[in-house]
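Our preliminary data section would be incomplete without showing what the modeling component actually yields. Below, a chain of 153 amino acids is followed by its predicted structure, encoded as tokens that our downstream tools consume directly.
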Amino acid sequence: MAVKIRLARGGSKKRPFYRVVVADERAPRDGRFIEKVGTYNPLLPADSAERVTLKMERIEHWLSKGAKPTDRVLRFLDQAGVLKREPRLNPQKALPGKKAQEREEERKKREEDAKAAAEAPAEEAAAEAPAEEAPAEAPPEEAAPEPAEAAAD
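Predicted structure:
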């Protein structure tokens, strides 16, 4: 029989109150349990002493028998200094979905195309301006040989 230390919800609608219980993992969340070992009232301020109350002696007893705490109960036990909860690290969780990534790539490509299109006329204008200046320099060089040819004829 696998035993869990978990929360069982009580309280009325929109007013949650939880009991920390030791229960068979096959039992329903709010159903049969073996022993009540604490309470959790999320409506109280985080610094309140009554927000989480735990019977540490009984919890340590059940942990020694092989009971596994759920993640939320493990957080409470970590705050109490009984067990160490390893932080979870999932860098993939923060990434957008596949479709959102595809839309972002398309948007970047459109921006690059628009930027390239805006730069292209400026480059053509810059390329045409030096081409006009080049012929102005070339005729004086060509002009010098013409008088020599005229003299030779």
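Residues 95-132 form one domain. The first strand starts at residue 3 and ends at 12. Preliminary results of this kind motivate Aim 1 of the renewal.
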